[in-house]
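Whiteboard transcription, Tuesday session. T.W. wrote the structure tokens on the left side:
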């Protein structure tokens, strides 16, 4: 991503005869603003996680782009594709949780001025299904955001409970 960002800076500088340093400053300011906005969106996703662990999918719904090519993979089933399927899948997941909370560990963050990939581990605690006992569980998550009309929007999220090494046979599903 850094190479792409550097190439963008060079392209702007070479294509402009008038005040190239002002062009670079403008791009840097936009990148800085987009980065701050991305950080706010990531914080919003953490609030959405806590809401879904309490049965409320609405904050996640607000994060997802209003498009038919968005995708969601969660621990409860296959990938959902399209706005309608994603909203339905979020509601189904939310219905399985209550009395929850979470903390999130950032593993990696890759971003340019248009796309961002966030890799995290969620450390969750909630009552799951019909259980009256609070369960602790961990989920690895990859979220892809796109900057759409000046706002970072979720276009893909994948979460699964594989956070420790497993033997090769584990992929066989026995």
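and on the right, the sequence the group agreed on:
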């Amino acid at each position: 991503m850094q190479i792409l960002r550097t190439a963008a800076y060079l392209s702007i500088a070479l294509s402009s005869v008038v005040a190239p340093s002002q062009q670079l400053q403008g791009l840097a300011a936009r990148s800085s603003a987009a980065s701050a906005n991305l950080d706010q969106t990531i914080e919003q996703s953490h609030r959405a996680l806590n809401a879904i662990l309490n049965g409320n999918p609405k904050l996640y719904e607000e994060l997802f782009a209003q498009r038919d090519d968005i995708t969601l993979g969660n621990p409860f089933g296959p990938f959902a594709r399209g706005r309608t399927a994603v909203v339905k899948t979020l509601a189904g997941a939310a219905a399985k949780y209550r009395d929850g909370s979470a903390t999130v560990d950032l593993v990696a963050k890759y971003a340019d001025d248009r796309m961002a990939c966030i890799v995290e581990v969620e450390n969750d605690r909630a009552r799951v299904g019909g259980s009256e006992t609070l369960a602790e569980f961990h989920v690895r998550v990859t979220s892809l955001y796109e900057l759409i009309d000046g706002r970072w929007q979720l276009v893909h999220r994948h979460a699964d409970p594989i956070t420790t090494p497993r033997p090769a046979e584990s992929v066989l599903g026995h």
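Someone added at the bottom: The longest strand covers residues 97-111.
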